TrEMBL record:
<keyword id="KW-0808">Transferase</keyword>
<feature type="domain" description="SAM-dependent MTase RsmB/NOP-type">
    <location>
        <begin position="176"/>
        <end position="457"/>
    </location>
</feature>
<dbReference type="InterPro" id="IPR054728">
    <property type="entry name" value="RsmB-like_ferredoxin"/>
</dbReference>
<dbReference type="InterPro" id="IPR049560">
    <property type="entry name" value="MeTrfase_RsmB-F_NOP2_cat"/>
</dbReference>
<comment type="similarity">
    <text>Belongs to the class I-like SAM-binding methyltransferase superfamily. RsmB/NOP family.</text>
</comment>
<dbReference type="InterPro" id="IPR001678">
    <property type="entry name" value="MeTrfase_RsmB-F_NOP2_dom"/>
</dbReference>
<dbReference type="GO" id="GO:0032259">
    <property type="term" value="P:methylation"/>
</dbReference>
<feature type="binding site">
    <location>
        <position position="290"/>
    </location>
    <ligand>
        <name>S-adenosyl-L-methionine</name>
    </ligand>
</feature>
<dbReference type="Pfam" id="PF01189">
    <property type="entry name" value="Methyltr_RsmB-F"/>
</dbReference>
<dbReference type="InterPro" id="IPR029063">
    <property type="entry name" value="SAM-dependent_MTases_sf"/>
</dbReference>
<dbReference type="InterPro" id="IPR023267">
    <property type="entry name" value="RCMT"/>
</dbReference>
<keyword id="KW-0949">S-adenosyl-L-methionine</keyword>
<feature type="active site" description="Nucleophile">
    <location>
        <position position="390"/>
    </location>
</feature>
<feature type="binding site">
    <location>
        <position position="337"/>
    </location>
    <ligand>
        <name>S-adenosyl-L-methionine</name>
    </ligand>
</feature>
<dbReference type="Pfam" id="PF22458">
    <property type="entry name" value="RsmF-B_ferredox"/>
</dbReference>
<dbReference type="InterPro" id="IPR018314">
    <property type="entry name" value="RsmB/NOL1/NOP2-like_CS"/>
</dbReference>
<dbReference type="GO" id="GO:0008168">
    <property type="term" value="F:methyltransferase activity"/>
</dbReference>
Amino acid sequence: MDHAIQRVLNALTHAYFIRGRAGDRRTVQNRQEKIMRLVPPLLQHAEALLVEILPCRLPADSVVSRYFRRHERLGQADRGFIAEAVYAVLRRRRSLEAYCLGEISPRRLLLAWLGCVQKLNRREFGDVLNAAENQWLAQAKALRLEDFPPALQLDLPDWLYARLLVQLGAEDTEHLALQLNQAAPLDLRVNPLKAERDALLARLRADGIRAVPGDYSPLAMRLADKPALARHPAFLDGSFEVQDEGSQLLGYLVQPRRGEMVADFCAGAGGKTLLLGALMRSQGRLYAFDIAEKRLAKLKPRLARSGLSNVHPVRIESEHDARLKRLAGKFDRVLVDAPCSGLGTLRRNPDLKWRQHESDVAELAVKQASILAAAAKLVCPGGRLVYATCSLLSEENEAVVEAFLVAHPEFSRLSASEILRSQSIPIRGDDEKGGDLRLWPHRHGTDGFFAAVMARQ
Ligand SMILES: C[S@@+](CC[C@H](N)C(=O)[O-])C[C@H]1O[C@@H](n2cnc3c(N)ncnc32)[C@H](O)[C@@H]1O
């Protein structure tokens, strides 16, 4: 193998683990050894992957999966490593482009990340850099990020920075943006029909998986690393699902009870459906509506693992589907996990900040209002309606709910924090304005979520 590439890989591996996995020498050593053993030209793979991702035609995660399917000989550690480099570039794309000094290319973005963010020195780069690149990188390293506008420094598009500034102020926007530029932790949710959290934590630890209970959700477990779990026996037997802790809290806001009629209006692949079904102890009827056949199809194997028998997936044409009319006024609880900009998930999907535009947000808000109004018709008198998004923007959140409440005086807001507290879920911080729940990556360590709980008279 080319020694220069080997040196960069060593340095990269070092930088990667120092940043992400400090404190566990054994893991560092194991994975480092693994990478050394398997080592392909990872930098070239990262470059090739960026060529496909940067035009932003498709979501980055689907491009990454497709790439790895095409390169099936890449091992787990190599994949982790390539994905880490590519995602780092996506997170820091705007400032890395500035470091490119007018000649933006996937290779330069990667080298800028290595040189200017990871601070690899010339010796660590070895002879990977040609003379022109050496010269360019020396100039790039001399740039001071502080001399650029705040939005660039924080790697946000101008329009998004401007909106967050209005909502949060400069200091909080900075804290949020810095957090959004980190990788999200891996959270699991225990399936209470199959396992008990303490026992499952012990089972995972016995397998060398470092896990602790979540801060808020009684079913959450947070992992210290990102092990591959798809073949873990406790996953296969339905004892847990992968689910962000914030997402879990939405299930507790719906608070479904055994025997009730419950609808998950935008069920997708059923992350929240599975939780709602488990909270109902599989008793009563739980409808999982969605317009996307493909997403609902992904719910099927998850349902099979979960042990739930009360879930009815129904593909609808739109929120105005005629079948919904027959169900009007019949549901005790309705969750609307609305399609949204997804900006609360930027730690996982950093490409969204470059793929979403202002005009998308305005369109989404119109769609969200229409879905909420249609879903509300399903709620019975005395029933509960929860509107949620993983957006950070008030346009998709409070504004949608406020307009809905004006047009539907039969609904009134409940306090989300009180509902959670009544279930012994402690939510700290400034999350109670208007009674709605707001979860922020920089305050709660979860993805960004908004949820409003409403009751029908
Ligand atoms: C935020 S995702 C839902 C995620 C899902 N609840 C989960 O926890 O995994 C929004 C979903 O809304 C669906 N959707 C979009 N328009 C819809 C509509 N008019 N009626 C129902 N669902 C819709 C999308 O297909 C997508 O699956």
